[in-house]
Amino acid sequence: MAHALILAAGRGERMRPLTDKVPKPLLGVGGRALIEWQVERLVAGGFAELVVNHSHLGPMIEAALGDGRRFGATIRYSHEPRALETAGGVAQALAMLGEEPFAVVSADIHTEFDYATLAPRIASIARDPARHCAHFVLVDNPPFHPDGDMALADGLVQRDGRKLTYANIAVFHPAPFRTIALGTALKLFPWAYRLVDEGRVTGERYAGSWDNIGTPDQLASLDRRLSKPRR
Prior knowledge:
- This protein is of the alpha/beta class.
- The chain has helices spanning 34-44, 58-65, 85-97, 119-127, 188-191, 193-197, 216-227, and strands spanning 2-7, 28-29, 32-33, 47-54, 74-79, 102-106, 109-111, 134-139, 151-153, 156-158, 165-172, 201-205, 210-212.
- The protein has a single domain (2-208), classed as Spore Coat Polysaccharide Biosynthesis Protein SpsA, Chain A (Alpha-Beta Complex), CATH 3.90.550.10.
């Protein structure tokens, strides 16, 4: 079974006061918690071995998701007494993720991305991690991030060119994270740009439904869209 890490340790400062008593991943949209949408999508895409990292109000996330059986998954938890950011969170959870490539997704995005399409990327990274160690999913730049993050050229992620936005969806080989000392607080970027500069990161542009929930207004807008009856 493929492994995936759901990043759920952020404090959600811009979502306050909503996140003062409820962790951001448990905020509701369309009748369920944000993180539940991610769990269900990952399981549908073949990722049944899940790890969730958490910090702020983390026990509430464990109570809500349990051991994963009701989703058809196994869920384990990586608790961080203080949030270690994205790359630091991956490094902290590495022992639970095994030796094979794994997906990393954020708990606070909502998307219809088909996670099953990552299977060939996982296989490619597993075959030759020295040449190909990661795969990033990118989206068109949303209004709140007009300058984007990185570009694509011939299937490889580049630092220069027409910028797209990192979709908070990726596949990684575990090896690069083994250089990060446990307990280190470290963001994924710019740390991961060294892998891009080495030419070891492939990428794709996803043009489907994707929302990054950063403010109460964005949460309310997504909730309205998901709550509309389908015709």
